[in-house]
Amino acid sequence: MKNLILAKTAGAFFAVLLSSLTTTPGGAQSLPKQGTIEATYTAAGSDVREIGVTGDDVVYFYESTLLMTTNNKTPLMHNVTAHCVESGFSAGAGSRYCVYSDKDGDKFVEAFTHPKGSTSGKGTLSSGTGKYKGIEGQFEWQVVQELPAEKGSYHYVGKKTGSYRLP
C-alpha cells in the first residue's frame, strides 16, 4: 500500500512538473517591439510555369518554401516557415513575396525585387497579423550556398540580416 501511495504521488509530481515545463505564462512567446534580424534559412522551390516570349526569354512563376532558424538573440524569425511566390521576366527583374507563419498561426509578409541572376538584395517586411500586426522592417538577403537540385528546382542555404519595428 505504501508503494502504491508513493507511486501515485510521484506520478502526480511528474505530471505537474511536465505541465510547468511545456506551458508558458500568457501563451505565446513575447516579441520585442524592435530588434534585429539575423536568420539562416534553407530554401526549396521549383518552377511552376514558364511562358515563352522569344528565344530563351520567358515570363516565369516560381514557388518555394523557406525554413528559418536564428540564434536566440533575434527571435523574429526563430523557427518560422515562409511560403513564397516569385514572378518575373528572365531577361529582367523578378519580384518575390513570402508569407511567414509561426507556430501560433501569426503571419507577416516579406517583399523584394531583384535584378536578373542576383544572389543578394534588399527587401521589406509588412502586413502582419496577431503579434506581428503593424510590423515594419528592412533586411538584406543573400544566397550563401547552392545545393543540388533537379532541373527546374532550386535548393539553397540563405541568410537574412536587418531590423524590424512593431507599433
Automatic annotation (TrEMBL):
Residues 1-28 form the signal peptide. It comes from the Bacteria. Keywords: Signal. This is Lipoprotein. It comes from Caballeronia arvi.
